[in-house]
Amino acid sequence: MESKARMVKPAAPRPTLGKRLNMANRAVRALLEDRIAVHGINLTTWVTLSALVHAGSLLHRELAHVLGIEGPTLVRKIHALEHAGLVARADDPKDKRATRIVLTKSGAALYRKVRPDVEAVDASILALLSRTERAELHRLLALVTEHAVSARTSSKA
Question: Mean pLDDT of all residues in the chain?
Answer without folding.
Answer: 91
